[in-house]
Structures are given as structure tokens and as C-alpha cells.
Amino acid sequence: MATETIYCARHPNTETGLRCGRCDTPICPKCAVFTDVGARCPDCAPRRKMPQFELGITWIARAVIAAVVVGAVAGGLWGLLIAHGGGFFTLLVGAGVGYCVGESVSVMTNRKIGPVLQTIAGMGCVLAFVVHNVVAGVAITGDLFGAIAGIIAIVVAVGRLQI
User: With CB atoms counted within 10 Å of each terminal CB, which end of the chain scores lower, N or C?
Assistant: First the structure.
């Protein structure tokens, strides 16, 4: 018994044995969309974003609130703990501040991720650095370890919300 050769509906020169799980249209691996219920053709595949990437204004507002509150509190504590210099310990504090800001944004947005939330968390770390300098009474340009710690905080917070 000979089997019939099937060609992709979108790529007529591509032989395939794969069909859409919904409409039974022949599809090749190039145009197949793999979903949690099987391979689908582009017409039948869901068009919405994955839930962790969907951000409405409510989620963004919650992220901003979390970044501002945690950034301000963490910056204040950082300024009280380390007024001037601090060396290597300052760098560890910066990593801790970044983790706290990034994690708070993540928790408040139900573990959503993406570039918008990364930007908000990074700005929360900038706020923490500014509050640190105000509380500690340090000029922003006069604290090398503090500036490096601020950069570390931003990297850690952004990494926490990375795709």
C-alpha cells in the first residue's frame, strides 16, 4: 500500500507528515506553531501573548509603587548603614538592594517579566542610590563604591525580571 505524499499548505515544495491538530491542514515545521495542545497552523494558533508578558496599566502601576517604596526604603537603610566608603561591603549591599527591588516588582506583578518591568526596577534602584546619598550626606560624584554598588543594584534588579 503506497502512502500519499503530503505537502505543506503554506510551503507547497515542502513535504510533510505533520497536520494542524485543529483543522487538519498540512503544515511543515517552519510554519507550525507548537502549543500546549499540539502543533497548530498559524491560522489556528492562539494569537495572544503568554500571560507573563501581558502588562496592563494596573500591573504597571503596581510595579511602579513597589519600585518606589522598596527603592526608597532600601536606599534609606543603605544610607544609614554605610555613610561613606564601605568598600567591598557596599558592593554586597548594592546587590541586595537590586535583589529586593527586582523581587518586589516581580511579586507585585504576579511574576510577570519583560523590558517595561526591567526599566521600572532599574529606576527603583536609581531612586535607592539617590536616597542613599541624601541620607548619607554624600555627593553623588564623590562615592565611587556607592556608584558601583548602584550599577550592581540595577544589573541585579534587571536580571531578576529578564526574559
Answer: N
